[in-house]
Design goal:
With 147 residues, the chain is an alpha+beta fold. The chain has 4 helices and 7 strands. It has one domain (3-146): Aminopeptidase, CATH 3.40.630.30. The chain has helices spanning 13-21, 35-42, 85-98, 114-122; strands spanning 3-7, 46-52, 55-65, 68-76, 104-109, 126-131, 141-146. Strands 1-2-3-4-5-7-6 form a 7-stranded mixed beta sheet, with helices on both faces. The chain is globular and about 35 Å long. The model has no long low-confidence stretch (mean pLDDT 93).
């Protein structure tokens, strides 16, 4: 098994949206459904494309806001779930951000996203709050932080 990543560039928007679109209808994740929406939401983000044995398997993105960083996108294609791709992607982002001295890492996830919660908690994230309908989709989210 080979896990690798690359930093997305301006030519990768179609790939990013294709990954995001796999989550349409999934109440656990609010996705960007087109390039304009993705660019608006992720324009200030660093996006890593994740690969499993050379095949595009997902993406994870973060945005630095002052002394904090927010993981604001994280999708693993269904075919590559349960293969360590998500843990690898999270570890890459955490390693990148912990090199930036003093960065607190924040993210939100749906409270029913059990697999993601287990992964985040196993990596040292703590649940710090409950948000009612933060994305306007009628669904709550848990806020997590890594210090």
């Amino acid at each position: 098994m080979s896990l690798t990543h690359s930093v997305a560039t301006a030519t990768d928007w179609e790939l990013i949206v294709a990954i995001e679109q796999t989550q349409i209808g999934n109440k656990l994740y609010v996705c960007s459904e087109n390039i304009e929406e993705a660019k608006k939401y992720l324009c200030h983000s660093t996006i890593f494309l994740l690969y499993y044995n050379g095949n595009l398997a997902g993406e994870i993105s973060f945005e630095i806001k002052g002394e904090e960083a927010e993981i604001n996108g994280f999708v693993i294609l269904p075919k590559y779930q349960h293969k360590g791709v998500g843990k690898y992607g999270l570890d890459v982002v955490m390693a990148t951000l912990t090199k930036k001295k003093g960065k607190k890492i924040k993210l939100v996830t749906h409270p029913e996203n059990t697999r993601a919660l287990i992964m985040y908690l196993s990596r040292g994230f703590k649940i710090t709050g409950w948000l009612d309908n933060p994305f306007g989709d009628g669904e709550p989210r848990l806020q997590l932080e890594f210090f």
